[in-house]
Amino acid sequence: MKKTAAVIAAAVAVLAGCSSQPSATSHDGNAGHDHPSSAAAGADATAHDDADVMFAQMMIPHHTQAVQMSDILLAKQGVDPRVVQLATEIKAAQAPEIQQMQGWLTSWGSPATAPMNHDSMQGMVSEKDIEALRNAPGPEAAKLYVTQMIAHHEGAITMAQDEIATGQYGPAIELSHAIVDSQQKEIDTMKAILQTL
Description:
Blueprint: H1 2-19, H2 50-74, H3 81-108, H4 127-135, H5 138-166, H6 170-194
Helix pairs in contact: 1-3, 2-3, 2-5, 3-6, 4-5, 5-6
């Protein structure tokens, strides 16, 4: 019995080693966040629960859509430089986080996506609105992008707050804090930009 427990403990340790990820506290390029990385260290760093799995499965398509929207905008001419910069930063921040979360799911042996309608997730932009963004000329697309991304970010913050409240996996909780911090700052920036577009 003790031998079995030791084998299980060793297996968990190996899995934890495979799934360890670099800190996500530099999400928005700022090294200093108000929350210390040790805040998530109170939980067992190797353990995860259903909330962690659901967080990653939902946040991956959420982030993927933000990258898609940014790509659509960045392909256009005549877009306000502030919006171009914002879209570039959002894409640069979220693409690596997608890879990070995919790595967690792989190490946990969990499916890459949840069996659910992604359109029903918090803040997801409808295909109709994505098409409107795709078809809009540059200046109009800038307004659409900022308006859509504010709601999109608000949804991501809600999902991250749920993970902070119910998750168990330290790196996922740390990433959630980074998402809340950086995306709230981006929301504030986008609201200010929107007033002058």
